[in-house]
Amino acid sequence: MIGETENKGDNNMSMGAVGTLYGVGVGPGDPELITVKAYRMIRECPVVAYPKKRKGGKSYAHEIVELYVNPEEKEMLGLIFPMTKDPVVLEREWGKTVEACWGALKEGKDVAFVTEGDPNLYSTFIHLARLMRELHPEVPISSIPGISSVLGAAAALDIHLADGDEQVGIIPATADKEAMRQAIEHHDTIVFIKVAKVLDLMLELLEEMGLGGKASVVTKVTSPYELIWRDARELKGQELEYLSLMVVSK
C-alpha cells in the first residue's frame, strides 16, 4: 500500500549534509493525478514549500496536496512570488524566497517545493532552481515530473493533441498578434497557456483565420473548479481566471 513502506532511496537527508531541493509536480488540479513518487516525496520530506498568496489564502498547489499533508507533522514553508516586472523588486523578493529555502536546506532538511502541473514546464520552480544554483551551488536539486494542465485539458475535452506526424505547440498567449498567427499556422494543434489576459485578441485572430469554431477553453482543469467552454466564442468580452488555457485544434 502507498505510504506503508518508507523508501529513502531518493532522499538525501543526513546529519551534517545539505538537504536536497525537490521540485514536485502535483498535476493539474485533481489530487488523484499526482504520481506515486510525488506522493512519497511529499510524505518523506520534512519541509513542504509552496507558493503563498500575499493575502494569506491557499495557493492552487497547496490545495491539491492538502489531502496528503498533515501541517502538524511538516514544516510548511509559504513562499511569495512577486507578480511584477520591476527588476529591483524581483531581485529582492526572489532573493528572500531562495534564502527561505536555504534556511531549511543548510540544516540538512530536504525541501519539497510543490507546483501545479510539471516543475519544468512554465513553472516557478524553474527560476527558483536557477537562482539556488547561482547562490548556493552546493544544494542538490532534483525534479519529480507531473501531469501538465495541457494533458489534463486534452482528457477533459476528449481530443487528441497529436497523432502520427502532426505537430503540437504549447505557446504562451501574448498581445503579439502576428506571432500568435504564425504559431497557429505552423502547428496542427496549439495549446495557448496564460490566455486570459489576451482572450478577445485571440478570438478576433481566430475569426480572421476562419478558425473561430476550432477553439475550446478550460479553466482549472480536472479540479473541483473546472470550467469548460467547447466553443471559445462564447467567452467574447468575458474575463477568465489566470489558470485558463485555450486549445486550437485544426
Automatic annotation (TrEMBL):
Keywords: Cobalamin biosynthesis, Methyltransferase, S-adenosyl-L-methionine, Transferase. GO terms for molecular function: cobalt-factor II C20-methyltransferase activity; precorrin-2 C20-methyltransferase activity. Its EC number is 2.1.1.130, 2.1.1.151. Pfam families: TP_methylase. Pathway: Cofactor biosynthesis; adenosylcobalamin biosynthesis. It comes from the Bacteria. InterPro entries: 4pyrrol_Mease, 4pyrrol_Methylase_sf, 4pyrrole_Mease_sub1, 4pyrrole_Mease_sub2, CobI/CbiL, CobI/CbiL/CobIJ_dom. It is an enzyme of class 2 (transferase). Gene3D superfamilies: Cobalt-precorrin-4 Transmethylase, Domain 1, Methyltransferase, Cobalt-precorrin-4 Transmethylase, Domain 2. GO terms for biological process: methylation. Residues 20-230 form the Tetrapyrrole methylase domain. Belongs to the precorrin methyltransferase family. This is Precorrin-2/cobalt-factor-2 C20-methyltransferase. It comes from Paenibacillus tundrae.
